[in-house]
Specification:
The complex is a heterodimer of chains A (359) and B (324). Chain A has 359 residues and is of the alpha+beta class. Chain A is built from 14 helices and 10 strands. In chain A, the strands form 2 sheets. A 7-stranded antiparallel beta sheet of chain A has the order 4-3-2-1-7-6-5. In chain A, strands 8-10-9 form a 3-stranded mixed beta sheet, sandwiched between helices. In chain A, a hairpin with a 6-residue loop joins strand 6 and strand 7. In chain A, helix 7 crosses helix 10. The longest helix of chain A has 36 residues. Chain A is rod-shaped. Chain B is of the alpha+beta class. Chain B has a domain of 58 residues. The radius of gyration of chain B is 22 Å and the shape is globular.
Chain lengths: 359, 324
């Protein structure tokens, strides 16, 4: 025997409610009317033509009919809601709106957030690195040039020292065919950085602190390695890609464009990962070795930087975090690679012109 | 099993209530967000329908909920049409600009501007027709019988007169549009109507303009009170030739409190309270809009002939810009 429930019925022609008795059957709904004349009549609603509402948790509305106007039932009996759902199954929306469904939705949203974070942290740098490695050299040089102009816009370039430092670097044989141009900028911070395509900027302060030409050779070999190994390009791509993706996620497209334009200013404070710094150190050591320049110059350079960073907290601290480890790395290299040091008077000569004015 | 089978006959004390809960709305918003993300935004029209259904089905008049019959598919088609409409005129403008021909550029620019002016009446008309025809209560459908041509004409004339009179005509313009739109709403054999006057609206605006100067704008909330209540008080439903008026009960102070509390709720929860803010705003609106007490909602007759085909194939029928 099927359970019976009370419901309000509307015939689709008038808003006049009628109380009826309904029960769920195998093929649909059975509705019993008691007419004003005392007669009892009934009708059947077929399953396939019955539609239900989904968003009111206390009143269920069922509508029936193939063509307008539709008949309608309003059922408040929770017992009926349970039996109807149990026998008919609930729609996807209704299932997702239950407690378990909501857990699923929230889990899904959290998964998406986590996935975006993972893509951002791991997949994006990886893809960007691949892209950066494939960038044509001409493009790197072009990009480096405009960045260089942008960065040096508000800086004072020391012309005499710039000439001397380029002559100094001319004495060192390097691989790769980037058009290297080094600029000495008057700045009281011991720093140097490389831009894509061969531009290298050296702050005057770092030169002042130097004692031997080997230190300068080590510094330039290191910075040139960033250029040669396309580190600068990779870094810029990474920092841009990150900002771009964030802008796109939050839908701020005009912001994305602005970010690219602003970026030039931020590049000088970009730091390399420890892996890239190590790569540049090792490549720099190879350059020193190939030129017969004493590799201990690099050790001396790091000690000089360490001393500077002890005095005050400087940008260099974040750029070269593990100076002790890097010094050990240089020492290991020297032990493993004994080679004859070639005396180079030209290097000494240009180094002297570079440091002469300061006295 | 014995069940009482006497027919309901309650007529008096019409009651309009909203029963939706903030937590339920939050659930729907989360669900909509998830499905929109995993479908790359294609789910958006369906998401909108879910939300509309939630509001319709939880609004109850005399214990019976409203039902929204629109579907995601219909809205999806509507969005495509809107995109095409905008795309065509924008494309024309772009073509005119790129052609290098100044005359052609001027013509396409003119077409673009005209399309821009038409968009408002088109959207109002489309949204009214679409939403009302897909709204029912106890199986009786709402409908909108306004003519698009008439609305566009009224709208354009109103715009021109407003510009010529430096904005003074605006009160009469708004009043005229309201009269036209509301008097074309049907609910079965019930007819809606509005009988406000532009002159009175203008007086309210003029008064508030003067008072605002002396109160540094704080009067704004009381202006809204007067303005909204005027609007509601002049709306009526006509049944058997008899007019039954709505009652506006908005208080400037209440509106002020609502805005402030909503703002604080949003700020201190970093926006997480949004669903609750929406729900209490809905409650606020319904609480301050008195349904005519004497109207008999139990004997509305379906007038389906007129509304059956509201789906039409009118370009704008699927415009659903959330204006209503």
């Amino acid at each position: 025997m099927d359970s019976v429930y009370k419901a309000r019925y509307y015939d689709g022609h008038s808003s006049m409610p009628k109380t009826v008795v309904i029960s769920i059957t195998e093929n649909g709904l059975h509705i019993t009317f008691s007419n004003p004349d005392g007669m009892i009549s009934s009708s059947e609603w077929k399953k396939a033509q019955t539609r239900e509402t989904e968003f009111n948790s206390s009143i269920l509305i069922l509508q029936y009919g193939e063509s307008f106007p539709y008949e309608q039932l309003e059922i408040t009996d929770k017992e009926f809601h349970r039996e109807y759902t149990a026998r008919r199954g609930a729609s996807l929306i209704k299932r997702l709106r239950t407690n378990q469904g909501m857990m699923l939705v929230i889990t899904g949203l959290l998964t998406i957030v986590a996935a975006i974070a993972l893509i951002y942290i791991y997949l994006l740098p990886w893809a960007v690195d691949i892209a950066a490695k494939r960038v044509p050299q001409a493009y790197e040089i072009e990009m480096g040039k405009s960045l260089y102009e942008n960065i040096l816009k508000n800086e004072k370039v020391d012309t005499a020292k710039t000439i001397a430092i380029n002559q100094f670097f001319g004495q060192i044989q390097v691989e790769g065919n980037y058009p290297v141009h080094i600029s000495v900028v008057k700045q009281d911070i011991p720093n140097a950085f490389a831009l894509p395509g061969g531009s290298i900027v050296v702050y005057s302060k770092i030169l002042e602190d130097m004692e031997t030409p080997e230190q300068l050779a080590a510094l330039l070999a290191h910075e040139y390695s960033h250029v040669q190994l396309k580190h600068s390009t990779r870094n810029i791509f990474r920092s841009l890609a990150g900002s771009l993706v964030i802008s796109i996620i939050i839908g701020d497209f005009s912001g994305a464009t602005a970010l690219i334009l602003q970026n030039a200013e931020n590049l000088r404070s970009l730091s390399y990962s420890r892996t890239l710094e190590n790569e540049a150190d090792n490549n720099g050591l190879q350059i020193l070795k190939a030129n017969g320049i004493n590799a201990s110059g690099m050790k001396a350079l790091f000690e000089q930087l360490k001393k500077a960073s002890d005095i005050e907290i400087l940008e260099i601290v974040s750029t070269h975090p593990d100076l002790d480890k890097r010094i050990i790395n240089v020492e290991t290299f020297i032990e493993d690679n004994p080679y004859d040091v070639v005396k180079n008077d030209s290097l000494t000569y240009y180094f002297k012109t570079l440091t002469a004015d300061e006295e | 099993m014995q069940v009482d089978m006497t027919n309901h006959q309650e007529v008096d004390s019409n009651e309009f209530r909203f029963n939706g809960k903030g937590s339920q709305l939050l659930g729907i918003m989360l669900l909509n967000t998830l499905l929109s993300i995993i479908t790359f935004g294609i789910y958006y029209p369906w998401a909108r329908v879910n939300r509309l259904k939630f509001f319709w089905e939880n609004a109850e008049l005399n214990g019976s909920p409203f039902v929204f019959h629109g579907t995601g598919k219909e809205l999806f088609k509507g969005f495509i049409k809107v995109l095409l409409f905008i795309g065509i005129f924008y494309g024309l403008l772009l073509y005119g600009k790129l052609s290098g021909n100044l005359g052609l550029y001027f013509i396409t620019l003119l077409a673009f501007l005209i399309a821009l002016i038409f968009i408002t009446p088109l959207a109002i008309h489309g949204a009214m027709r679409y939403r009302l025809s897909r709204t029912s209560w106890r199986g009786i459908h709402f409908g909108y019988r306004g003519s698009l041509a008439q609305l566009i004409t009224d709208f354009c004339i109103g715009c021109i007169l407003t510009v010529i009179t430096f904005g003074i005509y605006n009160s009469w313009f708004v009043n005229r549009l309201r009269t036209y739109i509301i008097s074309n709403i049907r609910f079965g054999n019930l007819r809606f109507g509005y009988d406000g006057s532009g002159t009175e609206l203008f007086a309210i605006k003029l008064k508030s303009f003067i008072f605002s100067i002396f109160t540094f704008g704080i009067y704004y909330f009381w202006y809204l009170e007067e303005w909204t209540n005027y609007y509601i008080n002049h709306c009526y439903i006509e049944q058997n030739g008899e007019r039954y008026y709505f009652t506006g009960r908005l208080k400037g102070s209440g509106y002020f409190m609502l805005i402030i509390s909503n703002l604080l709720m949003s700020i201190f929860t970093l926006g997480l309270a949004t669903p609750w803010v929406i729900i209490r705003t809905t409650h606020f609106i319904i609480r301050n809009m008195g349904i005519p007490a004497d109207i008999n909602f139990n004997n509305i007759a379906q007038t389906e002939d007129e509304f059956k085909d509201a789906a039409g194939d009118d370009l704008i029928d699927f415009f659903d810009l959330g204006i209503v």
